[in-house]
Amino acid sequence: MHSPLTRRGFLAAGSGLAAATVLPGLSGCSALTGADSDPDTLVVHSQLGTTAPGSPTYLAALDRFRKENPGLKVKNLINGDDLAQVYETSRLARKEPDVVMVNLYDKTLAWTDVGATVDVKGYLDDWGLRTRVLPQALAEWTDAKGRVRAFPYFATNWPIAFNRALLDRAGVDAIPATGDELIAAARKLRAKGIAPVTVGGNDWTGQKLLAQIIQTFLTEDEAKHAYTTGDFGSRGAREGIEYFVTLRDAGVFADKAQGLIADTMFTQFNTGAAAIESAMSSALAKVPPAVARHTEVGGWPLAEGAVHDKPTILRTYTLIGFWISPNGTKKIEAVEKFLRFMYRPDTVARFIKESGRDMALRSDVVSTDFPLVAAAQQLGSKVGQALLPDVYVPPAAAQPLITATSTSFTRGTGAAKVRAVLEAAYRSA
User: Fold this and answer.
1) pLDDT, tens digit, 9 for 90 and up, residues 345-403
2) Distance CA 82, CA 375 (A)
3) Domains plus CATH for the chain?
4) Which of 35, 141, 300, 316 is the most exposed place for a label (fewest CB within 10 A)?
5) 1-34, pLDDT tens digit by residue?
6) Which ranges of 44-99 does DSSP label H, i.e. alpha helix?
């Protein structure tokens, strides 16, 4: 399945439809002038370069690369959450950058299939870089046709962070491992004026946590089916939704969670206003030292009868990859130099040590200056793992699922309604 953008955008462009007709009102269209036909200028489009985690390390890496390759210029284009839309606009005009650094999610799932970016499998092998990639990362970046969409780079662990000091203040003696224990802890925390689990119920953070909780009674294959097809009618899916509703209506989540976003969630946890959050490693890296020293990481508490035998976390190796565009194939020697440099063990190590990033590449380096990131890296078999559904959700359903998530986090919404809005999100796909 492909989004309407895929069908009416990239494919229609070949028959002469104007990009403005297909993609009206997109922000950041100045990137159309960003592509450079100069063979000695490599154009990289990235979310790194401002406040995104890892930006200082990335900019320093670009400086080192320029010094090592004095005859090759690098132009760095920067966008935030609108990067995919901006890139698609530039591709429709055939003025796209050479390399794109973005995650595998939503719109980007369709890029290789429609020729917006190229299969990098041959380059990965020809340049001898396959052995640098973790096997699971390679599997996640490989599509159903055996094409490797991009060169894997950033990964993430996504555990649950527990502020031990706040739990102690509320009289919670141990990290909750079951749903009943979590409900009991939430009651004690609320009695002390502390929000229990903070979550961005109106954005991607809530969508991921909802998916994790629903999977309490789903095997990995069953979860893949549910998130690929939008069929949440199986017994396991219905039980998972009911478990979520039970937790929600018992007051486990912060007040008005359906209207909160990621920034609100991070602020509540980092200021000690909330005791628990589901935090990917980039968020863990930003927890202030005063809070981090009292924080433990673990998994989401399970219900009786769960298919998992240990509290779960999420992991993914698709956070950022290096995609090569059709324009990039015209400067493939420059692209090769850049990717070889970014894959070098010393470059990878700096992202781990300086920025607290998890990587999709092999490395023995640990994020020692980011204790919560390091702790998450070392959870190993202490936790179970739920499926991150990003690569299975059809692109057209991704944003509707956010709307469905907000409805789901609204207290009083019954399990049948939650299932209905989740399935409705797929009807536009």
Assistant:
1) 999 999 999 999 999 999 999 888 999 999 998 898 899 999 999 989 998 898 999 99
2) 32
3) 4-156+316-377 (3.40.190.10), 160-278+394-424 (3.40.190.10)
4) 35
5) 333 334 334 433 333 322 222 333 333 334 444 5
6) 55-68, 83-92
